[in-house]
Specification:
Blueprint (H helix, E strand, L loop, with lengths): L6 E5 L23 H12 L3 E6 L4 H12 L4 E6 L21 H6 L9 E5 L2 E2 L2 H12 L8 E8 L10 E8 L5 E13 L2 E6 L2 E4 L5 E9 L3 H16 L10 H10 L4 E6 L5 E2 L5 H14 L14
Helix pairs in contact: 1-4
Length: about 300
């Protein structure tokens, strides 16, 4: 691995079905910035020098025009495709499949472009400057002799909710020495009558405030790719003839590795509050949040991609 080099993998191939469009490229800052502008800014400040953007082929032109060309003189940026038909040998794309295969498959799409310790984020979530600093410090201290020591930035559940609908989060159990014990992907999490619940089979199940959750901010070494490849083949075998909406999410992979004692995951606790665009109604709240950070001096009041900003 290249010494002191850090890569950021950005998962940007999502469909945006609840939002109704390419939310990854929606302008939210005062100078037309998108959420990724702030993530790129924070990543650069933390010491990342390469970005690998996982996109769909039809997104590339808009992605380059909106984000890549603003940053390519300061960061090495590559684009890779998450394609539905990117399958292991011997597997065919189910004729009714339209939905992307999920976050673990998206990370696997970046394998040929990653040779250093790397972080993973979603394109449509705001993680905050301190979150990038925590992850960069961990990755810089990673030891080649311990290739299966990974990390995750965790957030307080109550800091990650949308006022406009349910969200999906990885609910974490963490040991006293800040290691991840298990993670369970929960969908349909929302605040109901001042109580946080997740809904399943038309029932509400409470989740305590203070619970640490994942928003797909992970830190890995390239050793993760062999696990992802093997796991995806197993998923496809089990998925044959099943619901064509099923996905291969990274929390499921991590939970399996933990149970099999094949990896460890350090939990890096962040105090940042989520901003994002899961729903169109989130947009104004996120714009207000960014404006507040600018007023506090966290971000410049000029284009964040301007050199020296």
């Amino acid at each position: 691995m290249e010494e002191n080099k850090l890569t950021l993998v950005v998962l940007a191939a999502g469909m945006g079905s609840r939002y109704g469009g390419l939310k990854q490229l929606d302008a939210l800052g005062p100078n037309g910035e998108i959420l990724l502008d702030y993530s790129f800014h924070d990543a650069l400040e933390a010491g990342f020098d390469k970005i690998v953007c996982v996109i769909r082929p039809e997104m590339e032109k808009a992605f380059r025009e909106t984000i890549t060309r603003k940053w390519e003189d300061r960061l090495l940026i590559e684009h890779v495709y998450q394609k539905l038909d990117s399958l292991p040998s011997g597997f065919l794309l189910p004729k009714d499949r339209q939905k992307p295969w999920g976050t673990a498959h998206a990370i696997l799409a970046a394998a040929s472009s990653v040779s250093t310790p790397f972080a993973v984020i979603n394109a449509d979530d705001f993680y905050g400057r301190s979150s990038f600093s925590l992850m960069a410090q961990f990755l810089k201290e990673s030891q080649p002799s311990i290739p299966h020591a990974y990390a995750m930035v965790s957030f307080l559940l109550e800091n990650t909710l949308s006022k406009h609908g349910s969200v999906s989060r990885g609910v974490c159990q963490v040991s006293p020495d800040r290691l991840l014990l298990n993670i369970t992907e929960r969908k349909n999490i929302l605040c109901k009558d001042d109580t946080i619940v997740y809904q399943e089979n038309q029932e509400n199940f409470p989740i305590s405030k203070g619970t640490q959750v994942s928003m797909n901010f992970w830190g890995f070494t390239p050793s993760i790719f062999s696990y992802l490849e093997t796991g995806f083949e197993k998923f496809l075998k089990e998925q044959r003839g099943q619901d064509q909406q099923l996905e291969y999410p990274i929390p499921d992979v991590i939970d399996h590795l933990l149970k099999e004692k094949q990896a460890s995951v350090a939990v890096l606790k962040s105090s940042e509050k989520w901003m994002g665009v899961t729903y169109k109604e989130d947009k104004e709240h996120t714009k207000e949040g960014i404006a507040q950070l600018i007023s506090l001096g966290v971000y410049p009041n000029q284009k964040v991609s301007v050199r020296g900003a």
